[in-house]
Amino acid sequence: MIPFNKPYMTGDELYYIKDAVTRGKISGNGYYTKKCHNFFKEKFNFRNCLLTSSCTDALEMAAILIDIKEGDEVIMPSYTFVSTANAFILRGAKVIFADSSRNNPNMDAELLEILITPKTKAIVVVHYAGVACDMDAIMKLAKKNSIYVIEDAAQAVDSYYKEKPLGSIGHLSAFSFHETKNIISGEGGMLVINDDQFDNRAEIVWEKGTNRSAFFRGEIDKYSWVDVGSSYLPSDVTAAFLYAQLENINKIQKRRKELWFYYYHQLKELGDKEFIQLPKVPDYATINGHLFYILCKNIDERTSLIAYLLEQNVQSVFHYVPLHTSEYYSSRYERKLLENCESFSERLLRLPLYYELEQEQQSYIIAQIFNFFENK
Ligand SMILES: *Cc1c(COP(=O)(O)O)cnc(C)c1O
Fold this sequence. Notes:
Blueprint: H1 13-23, H2 31-44, E1 49-52, H3 55-65, E2 73-77, H4 82-89, E3 94-98, E4 120-126, H5 135-144, E5 148-152, E6 160-161, E7 164-165, E8 172-176, E9 189-193, H6 199-206, H7 212-216, H8 236-247, H9 249-272, E10 292-295, H10 299-311, H11 327-330, H12 339-347, E11 348-351, H13 359-374
Parallel strand pairs: 2-3, 2-4, 4-5, 5-8
Antiparallel strand pairs: 1-9, 6-7, 8-9, 10-11
Helix pairs in contact: 1-8, 2-8, 3-4, 3-6, 9-13
Bound molecules: pyridoxal-5'-phosphate.
């Protein structure tokens, strides 16, 4: 069976974990946490960042930092993972779902303005599959209406919008290092702080609402409870694992992008014959080899293709159930129609893509997809 995903271990993880253990300090904000922070600052020019235990945590921190209160409205796509919404719901926000664009599952920037009300506090963009949203249009709209932009960049490490790294554009951004992502630490994430008004509070919220970080830097002589917060920082063992991955980021990204382009070029014939649609990447965006999807004509065809591939020992999977149709949301709020989002949800199929997928296996998967459509 060719699995849908297989987490890639670079081989250096145990070396760094052993070193972290030997150093004798394995709580958060230690030696490897700082090395990871510096890595991101150097490679992607992020002005400030904090590792977290998950992207979910980073999104929760963002909601606290922009001071989400009961009744605030937050605009986001419906075609996303639950954490994008939960982080803001937990602070009492009302989530306003926006439709996907026609071309890809990302929010359609042109549909956002009509959703803005005096209660709107933020727009959360999700760069689905690591493909950028139209950030110039969204940042301009946010500025005009004095609202914040949070990037859910969970899938977007090493991807770009007009040459700017994703995660460096919104006021705050959240990354994931969950084992299903490109760069992993089992569970893991990071908050990127692009607006310096949040620097001080971010560190406090990260450290359970205390000014412990400033204390350890020797800036104050005792630390105490100064704000709300939680324990959002990962153990230094997790950071040591992550550091091994980061050192191999170029190699990992090169292979994942090769696999993405190979699917794209080989399946183009089926796209040209209109059996399927291939992903459309806007001129302003790049791919980062996070995931490769095709779009079937409808849900029935997708269900048959999944079953057919499984018979051929290939695991392929669909993706999000739109959040506005979920049990939690639809039982509480009025259901609206988000046509493009629902269409992507029914037609999108993800194919195996992971570092260790071999060329022969990928060719086999592609051949099976051709077989399916040619024998129809
Ligand atoms: C993976 C993912 C998350 C959650 O990441 P965790 O690190 O598991 O909390 C959030 N949003 C999106 C878009 C994701 O793909």
